[in-house]
Amino acid sequence: MIADKNNRDARNLRQEIREGSFRGPTAGLCPGMTQANVVIVPASYAFHFLLYCQRNPKPCPVLEVLEEGCYEPKFLAQGADIRTDCPRYRIFRPDGVEERYDIVDLWQPDWVTFLLGCSFTFESALLEHGIPVRHVELQRNVPMFITNRATEPAGPFRGPLVVTMRPIPASLVSLAARVTAAYPRVHGAPIHVGHPELLGIEDLQRPDFGDPVPIRTGEVPVFWACGVTPQEALLSAKLPVAVTHAPGHMFVSDRQDRFFAHL
Amino acid sequence: MIADKNNRDARNLRQEIREGSFRGPTAGLCPGMTQANVVIVPASYAFHFLLYCQRNPKPCPVLEVLEEGCYEPKFLAQGADIRTDCPRYRIFRPDGVEERYDIVDLWQPDWVTFLLGCSFTFESALLEHGIPVRHVELQRNVPMFITNRATEPAGPFRGPLVVTMRPIPASLVSLAARVTAAYPRVHGAPIHVGHPELLGIEDLQRPDFGDPVPIRTGEVPVFWACGVTPQEALLSAKLPVAVTHAPGHMFVSDRQDRFFAHL
């Protein structure tokens, strides 16, 4: 374990979330701490979901998998509770998606929890290198878009790639690519730079999830793989039940982001 | 797919192996082509084996997982046959380990095949950078050692880390670390440099698998995580049946090693 001086902030935030006093998106919170996407599936689907992640490592970089029925992360945040510590959850059932603030009453002993890397993690590195992050500046959720690119299927899991978009000044796009490439376990380098229409994105001001952000003169829209991708795969898989965090409402861990830098 | 000018050599080698005219270790063969460790387990153990790999990415970097019952790789080598194309196999049963030249008669429809990266893959990169690879020079199998380090368990899979050892001139150790770090999916950077006793290795001239190689004056023993690690985990898991390649007798694929460089 590394000593994390920001631990207390992440713990405090999780405490606020658990008590219901914070329910917003987590972009920009606890700078330097690793944030994670949450996906929970019944054990009988765990192999194919893990295989889906292995086949799609850019959108689905696995940080930790909890033992069947276990809701306390061992590696990312001891003492946390995966059933209460995200600000908002989505429950996927064959007939639709429901949102909740916790999943304590729903929890089943055969559920397997996956924690996947989130690009919020590398935003402190971008800021440290002088690269602006518009949605953090404006205190909004990041804009997310469903693309026309298919992921590699595994068992019942298949669907389009989802991306986040950050407008980056043209002179800093190359640096942004290199800075984020150093964090492969939190989505790594961009998958696309400019020309949103080639990803099937019609209007950057109408994201599928999160909030729109302005793109200023001299900026280029840059796209990173997003951990909401498996939520699209859950929609098509139609499992009896599955749970995720709500887009942008992440699990904030006790691990520093630099722990996940490629060395 | 990238165009692989060395494809034909790998295909020819697999053909010779399939016909029984080549049965030796594959170190140094088909330079530049990715070699892979093979692990086959019944589907009911596939989740925990994949989780074991996810938790131990240095010794167990997953390159491809075949669909249940499928023995033709889709990504690493179309047209190959996983039941015949390794020079030698090991069959793990609760009462012991048996070696065979093919597994055609044993094959079961519920078997799931995992192909894991192998450090033979980065040896061409070492040679290109002027770093000698002793066992290739001497046309021997690489020396492999069972260490005193435990891997992270998953389900029934647990056991010690296995390493390969290459003697490297002191002036080139740093370069060797950096060159191999560029290939995280074939074991990446060394896990230990010098002082074999700290890994619990008593005699470098008595490897647990493969052949001993001389360490010359001014050279340092450098240790990389090895894809034989899961074979130790299979020994302790005592599945009804499981299959691997024999140490050093790898599956040689049609993918160029540079495809797996970190970019």
TrEMBL record, chains A, B:
InterPro entries per record: D-Glu_cyclase, Putative_hydro-lyase, UPF0317
Keyword Lyase carried by entry: yes
Protein name: Uncharacterized protein YcsI, UPF0317 family
Gene Ontology MF terms: lyase activity
Keyword flag Zinc: no
Family stated for the protein in its record: Belongs to the D-glutamate cyclase family.
Pfam families tied to this protein: D-Glu_cyclase
Keywords: Lyase
Domain of life: Bacteria
NCBIfam families: PRK05463.1
